[in-house]
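New to this. Explain the following:
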Amino acid sequence: DEKKLYLGAAPDTFLGAGLQTARKVIDSGLIGQVTSAVGCINRNYVRSSESAPFLCGIGGGLPYDMGIYYTTALLSLLGPVSRVAGFGVRPQGCTGMDPSSGRMGEQWGFKSYNTAAKEMAFHAAELMLGVEQCEKDGRIYEMTSSFTRPLPLKSGFMNTTFEGKVRLDAEGALVQ
């Protein structure tokens, strides 16, 4: 508030059924004290940029175009942060390979980061949010168990409503 800086994302990402279920589980203490959380997304923006050139521009890379949804979701679940650290890289460039895109053979560069990792220290837990390979899309850990948030659509694009089943397994962990 002091610097008049605000962060926002589509409300359906954190008001959807999957994340609201996660919110209830955390608030009720069903899984115990949260100790950490991991959010992860992978998307081939080099290839995607051929048909969607805005992805190459400032603010169009994965951390900004999609990563903000994961950040918002975890902020809504775990609350404010006390510190943030991160790094990112930009692709060197790309050559069009899809004849139907109208950019076949054209070369272009990226003005936006396409790969990033950040750590946000929440008052409740630690979080590593990045675009490295992950076994699961999202996972929240506590002292003895963990649960996953709903995964992206089978198309590879994120289900921004975060719909999906969340269930308690035999060991007391919530899983998709």
Q: What stands out?
A: The first strand starts at residue 34 and ends at 40. The CA atoms of residues 57 and 111 lie 5 Å apart. The chain is about 20% helix and 25% strand. The domain at 14-175 is CATH 3.30.360.10 (Dihydrodipicolinate Reductase; domain 2).
